[in-house]
Amino acid sequence: MNSIILVEDAYDIKEINDSKHDLESKIFTLNFISHELLEKENVLHEIGESYVSKEDKIKTFDTAITLRKWHQKHPNLKKLKFKGVNLVDLFDVNELHQFLLESLSKLIIIKRIIEKTKPDKIFVSEKLKHIIDSIPKISNFEVQIFSKSTKTVFFFDEYHINYKIGPIPISFNISRTNLAKIRKWYEKIATIQNFWYDEKKLKNTVLFLEFDPITYEELFFELNKLGITIILLNRRKSAMWNSKAISIIKKYNCKLVNENKLISNNKQEIFKNIEYFKKEFKQFWLDQEFLERTFVFENCFFWKVIKDSLIQVYENRLSDYVKLVFLSDELLKKSNFVSIVSLNSMGETENSIIQNNNNKIQTIILEHGYANFVNDVSRYDVFHMYYKLSSNDKIAVWGKIQKEYLQKKKNIDENQFLQVGSPRHDSFFKIKKKINTNKKQILILTTPLQQHTGITDTYTVLRYQNLITNIMKILKQLDVEIIVKLHPSQDKFNKLTSTFFKKFDKNIPIFHATSILTHLKSSDAVIHIDPNGIGLSTSILESLILNIPTMNIIINDEIFEFDCVQKNAIMSFLDTDNLEKPISNLLFDHDTRNNLIINGKNHVDNYLINPGEASSKLAHYLNSFSH
To answer: Which residue, 105, 155, 103, 99, is CA-closest to 130?
Structure first.
């Protein structure tokens, strides 16, 4: 009998070890975690992702992008509109994308395995059975299942928190619910410090959505000089997240939106609306015909695969969504903001405010990352700020390269652009680098292994691990000081990445939440590790601003011709290249280092407008909207 077993985690592996399955069954892993566990147990298996082609991955990604708008043709969509905001549409776009992509990636792996192995029997978890049921049968096979929870944890169901108490770093995960409770503790600080926004007392105000005061201190300084009051609305990460942030808020007389005050007098109305929309959502999900024909991929009707998780996340967040919309409505009705500034239009806070505003107040979307796409990878630009832009939005770009890309690829009108530069990097141009008189210091920067692109798989992680080992061996021979800085996002693979480094050297310093500027100031060179090479990390640009020779090593089979690559502003290599001499040259060869510094400066000059003065430029633009 041709039987197969599909596993994706430790629970599945325990089940197959405890069960009486056919010993001749072929085991397939669906991800790196299950592969690594079976490797440790010396269990023979195949990596399921090996059955998936590059074209499959692109098709999966494109389908996930298309399904971002899955709800827009639902016949009862209008019934879920509240105060001008569609409650279905509030779900964070990137969070939805990640959920859909993970489901579709799993589906395509299992489909390809079944197509190529044509099994008589499949042993699988209850969680995966819905996927198998969605696949058109190419042969008659028996499915044997074992029970398993189908609960899905969404990206923003948990938040990763990093703090320092003196020299002691503290890191932990906190649920979305408990994060809301912690806000009450922050509110006490705001009350004591007189930080609350009072719309009756203030004029000439600008509303900032989900901004970190530390990152944008220079901008706040410039706005304060012009007599503009900064109003902060932060629902994901508190604006008062540490003592430095609190001091900046106080120094520049920033004010915080008091959510409780704005909605406290309307609790009864909010409760009634929550109950009303609970009923409307139940009706919404009953249209099985619409949902079945909407969620289709390669003739697989996969609504049942995602049904429970998607319905559950809306049930869990409905109360929060209703309160958020009510907050947005009250805030905009009672205020007279000069403008609204956001870093994107895809998050829940940003989406609610922008929809509720409905173009009444000028909205500025500020570019916040190093975006330099080329035609070969332009499909992946959706992770930046270009989604849901309206013709009335102003887009504050960092320079001409990004402006030209948006004009050509997105057909954005010339009048929508504000060429300001990068306010968050003004301070970088004023830094004096430390000169190391002893050992050379190299900073290793990592990019998340998260599955946003559909490209990352078990082979990517294995190559990532091998690359880290290779880099560490080379650097140890060169006798340099090594520092590792993980990407600051709440990437679930950050812990795994740390493990790869610690396996080689358990004493290596690894940082996560610290400012990158702290480490760049003392670095002689930077090595950046990129798991797919389809975009550029902002940390590369930051290294170039500080005139640090930089190498980008890509886990892929090709290097894309970004401007910094064309202009030789960085050294670009594949993980399969021989890296020993290039790394040595990066650190010690005078000509190599000097050329990189010159080319890097030219690229920065070409990419960034108003270096060191972007905050002043944007502040004056914002001030002009008040006249």
So the answer is: 103
**First and final C-alpha spacing in the chain:** 79
CA-based R_g, the chain, Å: 26
Contacts of 336 (CB under 8 A, 6+ apart): 199, 203, 205
Please give the single-letter amino acid code of residue 88.
V
**Residue 571 has which token pair?**
């050294």
Per the CB < 8 A criterion, the answer to whether 114 and 138 are in contact is yes
Q: Where are the alpha helices (DSSP H) in 151-242?
A: 176-193, 217-225
**Cα 538 from Cα 607, distance rounded (Å):** 12
Mean pLDDT for the chain?
Answer: 90
Q: Are 91 and 69 in contact (CB under 8 A)?
A: no
Of 453, 435, 444, 438, the residue nearest 505 (C-alpha): 444
Convert 370-399 to b/e letters by CB count within 10 Å (16 or more is b). Answer: bbbbeeeeeebbbbbbbbbbeeebbbbbbb
Coil, helix or strand at residue 396 = strand
Residue ranges of E strands in 246-342: 255-256, 296-297, 300-301, 339-342
DSSP type of residue 347: S
Task: Say if residue 27's pLDDT is above 50.
Answer: yes
**DSSP per-residue string spanning 464-514:** HHHHHHHHHHHHHHHT-EEEEE--SS--TTHHHHHHHHHHH-TT--EESSS
User: Cα 210 to chain center, whole Å?
Assistant: 14
Which residue from 501, 466, 488, 479 is spatially nearest to 537, judged by alpha carbons? 488
Both tokens assigned to 145: 């299942």
Burial of residue 427 (number of CB atoms within 10 Å: 0-12, 13-18, 19+):
middle
Nearest by Cα to 531 from 486, 561, 564: 486
Out of 57-66, 330-339, 454-463, 481-490, least confident range: 481-490
Alpha helices in 41-158 (DSSP H): 54-66, 93-117, 126-134
Residue the block writes with tokens 């304060």: 224
CA distance 605 to 614: 13
Owner of token pair 């930080």: 195
Query: Which own/partner contact pairs does 313-319 have at CB distance under 8 Å and 24+ positions apart?
Result: 313/91, 313/152, 313/154, 313/157, 314/87, 314/88, 314/91, 314/281, 315/278, 315/281, 316/157, 317/91, 317/176, 318/87, 318/274, 318/277, 318/278, 318/281, 319/274
Q: What angle do CA 157, 68, 321 make, to 5 degrees?
A: 45
AA identity, residue 460: T
Q: Could you give the CA distance from residue 342 to residue 512 in angstroms, rounded to a whole number?
A: 25
Check pLDDT > 90 for residue 174: no
Report the alpha-carbon distance of residue 325 to residue 320 in Å, rounded: 9
Q: Can you tell me the distance from the alpha carbon of 99 to that of 79, in angstroms, rounded to the nearest whole number?
A: 25
Q: At what angle do helices 494-504 and 458-478 cross, to 10 degrees?
A: 40
Pairing verdict, β 363-366 and 229-233 = unpaired
Confidence of residue 18 (pLDDT cuts 50, 70, 90): confident
DSSP string, 29-45: ESSHHHHHHHHHTT---
Judge contact between 176 and 153, C-beta under 8 A: no
Distances (CA, A) of 134 to 71, 110, 139, 246, 282: 20, 11, 14, 52, 23
Contact 56, 116 (CB under 8 A): no
Q: What is the DSSP letter of 253?
A: T
- How far is residue 89's CA from residue 136's CA, in Å, rounded to a whole number? 31
Hey, is 234 helix, strand or coil?
A: coil
Least confident of 32-46, 139-153, 308-322: 139-153
